[in-house]
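Subject: Interface between my chains keeps coming out wrong

I've been trying for a while to get a sensible model of this assembly. When I model each chain on its own everything looks fine, but I need the whole thing in one frame so I can look at the contacts. Pasting all components below, labels as-is. Any help appreciated, I'm running out of ideas.
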Amino acid sequence: MSALAGKRVQQWLTLSRGWWLFDAKWQDPYLSAKIISKYLIGCHKPIYTKSKNGDFGDHVIVINSADIALKADDWYYRVYFHHSGYPGSATWTKAWEVHRKNPTMIINRAVYGELGVNLTRRPTMERLHIFKDDNIPQILSENITDQIRPLRPVPRRLDSYTQEEQNAFPKLFDYPKDYVLPEPKPRVPRQPDVNRQKGKTRNKIF
Amino acid sequence: MLNKYHLWLEFANVGIRITRYNVTLGLLGHTGIRRIHNHVRPTLYALRYRKEIEKRKNPIPKPPSHRNTFLEWNYNAELFAFGKRLNEEFDSNLLRQAFVEKSYAVKERLRQEELNLNVETLSLKDNESMSQEGMTILKSNLNAILAREFPRLPESGIHAIQGYLTSDSVLSNFSSQIGTKDLIQCNEIPPTEETLSRVFCGVISAIQNSSGRKRVKTFIEDFVLTHLCDKDINEIWDVQKPWAMLTDILSSKGETIEPRLLRQAGKNTLLSVFIVGLYTSEKKLIGTGNICKMLKWLK
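Reply #2:
Try treating it as a single job with all components included. I did that and got this:
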């Protein structure tokens, strides 16, 4: 019995399935997808082998998917294609519309595209759990083993600094007391290109 | 129709590099391809044909014959070489005696009696007493060496390793690796496991009686103990109740075990992993497994 016990333990540990946490806040979903897909497929493990029936991947829980940051003006110009099967029912939906409807969709499709075109794609996607904020069901959060390091460090917003922290920060100089600060300009959100022809968008099909 | 290209090929097919005649490109085709040479197939066919002829001639397979039936066999030289191979100084009579099996000695004695020869002067001495002596030497030396090398291993473990290293299968393996197979004088060809192990013990006793105790100890360390390399202790030593053994050892030192959960993965899944560390006043041993399986092991 003890001859096999040590080997049983080693086998169980080697082939164990891990659970990873990935915080997608202010991360590029398509670059994150490359990292996440590697963990889902199991390429991060030395036991991985390229096989059609192989099953080496781990679970990945993605949180804050509502706060992802697409590149440049992709929110308006990146489109997601869908065809229901009926003639004339091809739709190209802009990223911001998709995100508004389902904040987990963009990162879901990004990872789906990174997994490669094969039959293991759908079962592998079953191991990806996406949540729009950081409320994870306890039954899943208890499984987590480790966190995947985010691609870009998440900076602090200037308005998140408290008055105490601002006062404590070393100041080189300050305005004179009788200096009159100008009125702050109103922040106008960037408008899309109005001169573009209606109905035609740059068809980036992903 | 033979032309100059065919002749070229005839010469080119001899040796390592082969030129392949490409129909469309002529000799400008690919050259020097690494492949199975053209002579391999006919060679194998010829060998197979000869083997079948032999089988037809002798349908009953020939029994294996001893090396001494072949050419260039000098038993004295072989014995001398055996000693030199092992870098040991042997008393030649003792070494000769170590290789004689009892059954063979009895057979020889009967043969000599039949031929009415003087039995007392010509009788072969067998290695029975030598092998018994050698076994006791081996066991006592192994005990000492193992106790020195593995001070924390309990007695049952040392006993298990010693039993493994002195078992017939293992000793016969050592014996044949040293090259005793052709030197043994016994009735069976090839010699049995018991014969080989007896001879090995006989050789050990010969070393002690020729060169001394120190020499025998180094011999055992170099030739027997080295076979423990890369062996799993759990395959040699089967512990029936590991938890009980562990608690006994520790309680004799006055310590208790405290198991603690170190790491876990997939707690709520079927394939959950729990890594448990066993602590004895901040010193860590290791253990792991599923909780339900862990409980089974504890019992």
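Reply #3:
Confirming on my end. Chain A touches chain B at residues 1-6, 8-9, 12-13, 16-19, 59, 139-140, 142-143, 145 (CB under 8 Å).
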